[in-house]
Amino acid sequence: MTFPSLTVPFKDVKDVEKFEETPLENWLTEKTVYTAFCNVADKFAEKDALVTQPMGDPMGQGRHYSFADLKGKVHQMANLFVSAGIQPDEAVTNLLPLTAEAYFTLIAAESVAIVNSVNPMLEAEHIVGIMKAANTKIIMAPGKALSEELWAKVEYIISHLPDLKAVYVLGGGAECDGVKTIAMTEALEEQPADKINGLPERGLDDVIGYYHTGGTTGVPKLVPHTNRMQLMQRAGTGFLLGCNEKDTMIGGLPLFHISGSVVTGLVPLLAGARIVVPSPLGFRDPLLVGNYWNLVEKFKVTVLGTVPTVLSALLNIPVGGADISSFRTGSTGGSAAPVEVLKEISAMSGLNMSEGYGMTEVCSFTTGQPRDGEVRFGSVGMRQPYTQIKTVIMDDDGNIVRDTEINEIGILVMKGPAVMPGYVQTQHNAATFTKDGWINSGDLARIDEEGYIWLTGRAKDLIIRSGHNIDPALIEEPLHEHPSVELAAAVGRPDNYTGEMPVAFVQLKPGMSASEDELKEFVRERIQERAANPAEITFLETMPLTGVGKIFKPALRMITTEKVVRMEIANFEATADSIDVEMENNSSFGLTARLKVSGGDKSALEAEIHHKIGSYTFHHEIDWV
């Protein structure tokens, strides 16, 4: 099948519209991701598709899989699932680290069943809940020799899911009984590689993936991905990144997140690109980060693509003598990127780093900076092809009252073929979709005259730590169980590495007392997800409330942001006559720290303040008084 080149220019919205002159249906003639993958694999049969480096040696001799090899392994893995009795509406839960087998599982499970990649760092009870909601019948997991901690979770999971058909164990040994718990490598090699036996007939709207959205008070919401959604993102995200068969990307992001499975996984593979996996731990491996620029030279990496926290870490790794001239573009997303980090990594790499925006619920990116046009740091760029995006004013019931004017802040909503059909737990859908089918992102934004989208805050009550969504209720409900607590609220404290850290505010009951350490220990025993444990608990005499008695969280976000700013400016007080901070809600940028500075070396102070405060995602301005 011939498609329009993904390397067409992207300078502005007119290029998006020009790309849309090719009907979306042209991208959907292959009705399944499996068919599209097979066609690409046949076209680029001898070309490298996947390279996996050995654990502890990212610069060592890796294992190379051509597209023909990868297709054969996908067939073997799919046949393994079929032989275990998997059905198209049942899930294969992937708990594997970033290994070749994890990628085989991703494509194979989508071909014959539903892939359900889960964050193995979640508590075992949480994982069981996800698997039950996903109708999991097969588990893919590392054995005891690879991770004793994770294997202990797997044993717990097996005991709570009696209907499992098989558990395939990577590196499995004595823990495998050969009946239900099976050594993966040996079982895989016994399967035929030429085709999938009993390949189910599937269409564009069949569900092929479930992705969880992060921590909640119950089972995390499961987002279904269909063939249509992922094939559409081959076009949409492929256009934003300019993906083509000459590309090489580093696969360092986990497959339980769309950044790893779709943005640096399926999208490049379906364009004929190569993925290099330097470590099973991904970007959590300090050896990967420490060798990043050398890896770029070794593999001629073309796309600097990762999340903002990794970009911050890379700023501490000198490029040195590494040849990074193979880079053609840079892209980041998953959480808000600090402007100063984008500027500094751009200067370091010679690229204009593009920040994009997306959600699990829309399968991948839906916006990106124009890779051939003006990059405006602080913006998440323009809409991708075939997706409608606008900002609106809503009433208290979630109904759209009107569209916003140019540069007016409103709630960002989206519509199009990349948007999910609805959560697996359908009770969440009414609050997520408007009556006419727009998905409410929960983010506040404005759109300027040229179509650049600027996020200004969040209407939806979430804390986003390193791209991971945390429901504040996970923290608030345990706090309310404490006998001394009258009111409790959790918000995200700005953090220049993780983006946000969960913190809590409490108002104690009259005459009662409690210490911060006491409350931290109390909730630690009750919070299922370690990432949700509050980094700080602040006591307030009176909790800020709205006119109808609800806790007013914007005021709490302002308090905790001001505290962060004052901590940072303490470093400069000796070099200025005075520095003060005023917090405000700016009509263009949302929450803003306004620094009032007098005395000192103006140019040097400005540079230092921008460097420090600019490493956070909130907006700041300097006034000289």
Please tell me about this protein's structure.
This protein has 625 residues and is α/β, with parallel strands linked by helices. It has 4 domains: 13-383, ANL, N-terminal domain (Rossmann fold, 3-Layer(aba) Sandwich), CATH 3.40.50; 393-458, Roll (Luciferase, domain 3); 463-551, GMP Synthetase, Chain A, domain 3; 558-624. Helix content is 29%, strand content 25%. The protein is built from 17 helices and 30 strands. The strands form 9 sheets. A 5-stranded parallel β-sheet has the order 4-3-5-6-7, with helices on both faces. Helix 2 packs antiparallel against helix 3. The longest helix has 17 residues, at 67-83. The chain is globular, with a radius of gyration of 25 Å. The mean pLDDT is 92.
CATH superfamily of the largest domain: ANL, N-terminal domain
Shape: globular
Any idea what the CATH architecture of the largest domain is?
A: 3-Layer(aba) Sandwich
Question: Low-confidence parts lasting 5 or more residues at pLDDT below 50?
Answer: none
- Beta percentage is 15-25%
The structural domain count equals 4
Question: Span from first to last CA?
Answer: 64 Å
The main sheet comes to:
5 strands, parallel
What average pLDDT do the residues reach? 92
Total of DSSP H or I helical runs spanning 4+ residues: 17
Strand order of the largest sheet: 4-3-5-6-7
Percentage of residues assigned to helices: 25-40%
The CATH class name of the largest domain reads Alpha Beta
Radius of gyration: 25 Å
